[in-house]
Amino acid sequence: MEQTRKCPSCGGTMIFKPGWDSLLCQSCGRKEIIPELVSKIPVEEMDFLTAQNTASHDWGMEAKVVVCKQCGAATIQNKLQLSGLCPFCGSTTVESGDPEQDIMAPNGVIPFKITEERAYYIFKDWIKDRFLAPELLAQNARLNQFYGIYVPMFTFDVLTENRYTGHYTEDSRRTLFKSGKFQYQVDDFPVVASKQLASDKLILSVLKDYRTREAKPYTPEALAGFPCEHYSIGLTDAWNSLGNDLNFHLQQQVNKQGDSRYIMGIEMATDYYNLRYKYLIVPVWINSFFYDNRLYTIVINGQTGKIDGQWPKSFGTFAKKTALFFLGSFGAV
Questions:
Q1: What is 68-124 written as a DSSP string?
Q2: Cβ 253 vs Cβ 48: under 8 Å
Q3: Residues in the chain with pLDDT < 50?
Q4: pLDDT confidence of residue 139
Q5: SS (HEC) of 308-329
Q6: Can you tell me the distance from the alpha carbon of 230 to that of 310, in angstroms, rounded to the nearest whole number?
Q7: How far apart are CA 29 and CA 6, in angstroms?
Q8: Is residue 148, in this structure, part of any structural domain at all?
Q9: SS3 for 268?
Q10: Range of the domain at 173
Q11: How confident is the model at residue 100, as a pLDDT?
Q12: Are 154 and 278 in contact (CB under 8 A)?
């Protein structure tokens, strides 16, 4: 939810300043350090089985869900705030959702480290390497307008007991079978709780690039000037969605158990114990733009600066760049 804070010196609006862990007054330049963001206190891990009874619903202010009528994205705002722009598609056609909805609050936040200006330069360097991008893309799309938003993420810790079977090759001729068991502690396994963004594999790779151990205890001050997306994948659904990814991660651990043989064709059965979670909000810079009547989305990780997304392709541009390449390579001979 986008928080507002008045400056005690001049009464101006204070917003969160990425990279400084502080609030900055837009009028007089006063800065205030946010204590939670400079503390050494780790984010508390919550018990999964008692989540419904122990999860916090305190956002530090009265919250409401606002839904975009064009793309369906749901963001969380202060109840006193007027509904504005959708950060996912740029639409101004937004409306308040169910006023009785109980909104679970995060218990941790990864604050923005990348500024909007830095995000734009990251994008400029990135788009230059998109060989098929239309030459007029920069002029025809509002690519210099990035919107900062916090996106919901669940991370899971769980102790696993694993039993596996597989095979390996010996002397390049014989295939031998192997079985075994091992214990492994899964730590901070992430699930992006946004259907809006998690459906795109390019974007998902950016959203799984966070250093989650740097998360800080949640404070509404980190949201000053930034909206927050409401999770569209609940806690239970997030855990249930982990099946293939977590199983692949555990299979990778088989070959890290100290045996020099490389095990292939691994099949595994796993028991889970002491499942715990954190509900984090993580920073993203988003640029959504229309080109030839199609919506494209580019995202930048607001902590690490990793970028990816969708962009239009032009085979006319490809042909031109290829021709210039060959002229440059062979024209001077």
A1: ETTT--EEEEETTSPP---TTT----EEE--TT---PPPSEE----S-HHHHHHHHH
A2: no
A3: 1-2, 80, 82, 99-100, 141, 318, 323-326, 332-333
A4: 53
A5: EECCCCCHHHHHHHHHHHHHHH
A6: 23
A7: 12
A8: yes
A9: strand
A10: 5-328
A11: 46
A12: yes
Domain count, the chain: 1
Q: What is the pLDDT of residues 242-283, one digit of tens each?
A: 989 999 999 999 988 877 788 999 999 999 999 999 999 999
Question: How much of the chain is in helix, strand and coil states, percent to nearest 5?
Answer: 25, 35, 40
Per-residue confidence (pLDDT) for residue 4, from 0 to 100: 65
CA dihedral 58, 280, 70, 301 (to 10 degrees): 140
Distance separating the N- and C-terminal Cα atoms of the chain = 62
Model pLDDT for residues 58-94, shown as the tens digit of each residue: 666 566 777 887 777 788 766 545 456 677 776 765 6
Q: Residue 70's pLDDT is what?
A: 77
Q: Are 293 and 140 in contact (CB under 8 A)?
A: no
In Å, what is the CA distance from 16 to each residue of 1, 94, 224, 288? 13, 24, 5, 23
CB proximity list for 22: less than 8 A, separation 6 or greater: 16, 31, 32, 33, 34, 37
The per-residue DSSP string of 231-263 comes to PSS-HHHHHHTTHHHHHHHHHHHHTTSS-SS--
Asked if the structure places residue 19 within a domain, the reply is: yes
Instruction: With respect to residue 333, please indicate whether it lies within any of the assigned structural domains.
Output: no
The confidence score (pLDDT) of residue 71 equals: 77
For residue 279, tell me if it sits in a domain: yes
C-alpha angle 6-74-193 in degrees, rounded to nearest 5: 105
CA distance 26 to 11: 10
